[in-house]
Amino acid sequence: MDSKSDGSGFDPESVDVVLRLLWREHLEVAPGRRGPRRKLSVDEIIAAGVALADAEGLEALSMRKVAEAVGVSVMSLYSYVPHRSGLIGLMVDEVIGRTALPELPEGVGERLRMISDLLWDEYHRHPWLVAAQSHRPWIGPHTSARYEWELGALEGIGLDDIAMDHTVALVESHASASASNSINAQKLADDSGVSDVDWWNANAPFLEQVMPDEGYPVSGRVGSAVGEAYQAVTSHRAVYEFGVETIIAGVEARLSAPA
Q1: What is the spatial distance between Cα 86 and Cα 127, in angstroms, rounded to a whole number?
Q2: Fewer CB atoms inside 10 A, N or C side of the chain?
Q3: Which residues fall under the DNA-binding region feature (predicted)?
Q4: Is the CB of residue 120 less than 8 Å from the CB of residue 237?
């Protein structure tokens, strides 16, 4: 086995070509610019991938479809971007870069809410970002700038470096999970043509037979309260809001607690 390889084809001493593509604007000579003039730019390929994922979802994204969209062969496309996973990484960083990073407000709670709302809105503009999390999280310039901005919201408030990182991860995880639930519920309603309210109304008589109130007193009471409040099984936005407020309260309590 090559001393520079771990046996999987990965060379730990090399710089992955996808990283070079991500940071192409920061390199003196961008990848792929040597040799004969090329028909495409990497930016055009990324834009085509984002447009396809926005329209059809990440599961529909293939190198063949992207090649067709930009008017080249699949083999030619691979000479620009080495694989689908790398293309997804480039797309994620591109989309993150499209979201402006606003000036942070004064209060800690307001800052955490701004970060969370920015992510919630971004996921709903590009629902495929949820599925993209199952792929390698490539470190690109826009992703790095986002993380720096998020950490800047917590700099100097009294958290140590580890707690700062964990707080950002907690806010990101909650926004991602909540947005995923919201997006999936909407997709289910769109695909089936049946809203949650209609489905539960149609099945309520049967459920009342097999789930009498005396058998499920707490869940029955809570379910009724939620149904009356939202005229639905739940409100994903309300759950998201509750989670954000709980995170903010927890961070503020941590800051006010004795060392």
Answers
A1: 19
A2: C
A3: 62-81
A4: no
> How far does CA 251 lie from the centroid of its chain?
23
Question: Scanning the structure block, which residue is given the tokens 């480039």?
Answer: 90
- Is 227 in contact with 233 (CB distance < 8 Å)? yes
Which has the higher per-residue pLDDT, 210 or 252?
Answer: 252
Report the phi/psi class of residue 245: left, alpha or beta, with left for phi > 0 and alpha for psi in -120 to 50. alpha
H helices present in 57-107, as ranges: 63-70, 74-78, 84-98
Classify the phi-psi angles of 156: left when phi > 0, otherwise alpha if psi is within -120 to 50, otherwise beta. Answer: left
Amino acid at 212: P
The answer to whether 81 touches 19, Cβ cutoff 8 Å, is no
Compute the distance between CA of residue 132 and CA of residue 138 in angstroms, rounded to an integer. Answer: 11
**CA nearest neighbour of 96 among 142, 34, 50:** 142
DSSP reduced 3-state for 61: coil
The DSSP element (H or E) to which 83 belongs, if any, is none
Look up the CATH superfamily of 102-256: Tetracycline Repressor, domain 2 (1.10.357.10)
**Dist CA 146 CA 53 (whole Å):** 22
Picking from 31, 40, 127, the residue whose alpha carbon sits closest to that of residue 86 is 31
**Are 12 and 6 a contacting pair, CB within 8 Å?**
yes
> H-helix or E-strand containing 7?
none
Average pLDDT, integer, range 81-100: 96
- pLDDT at position 118 is 98
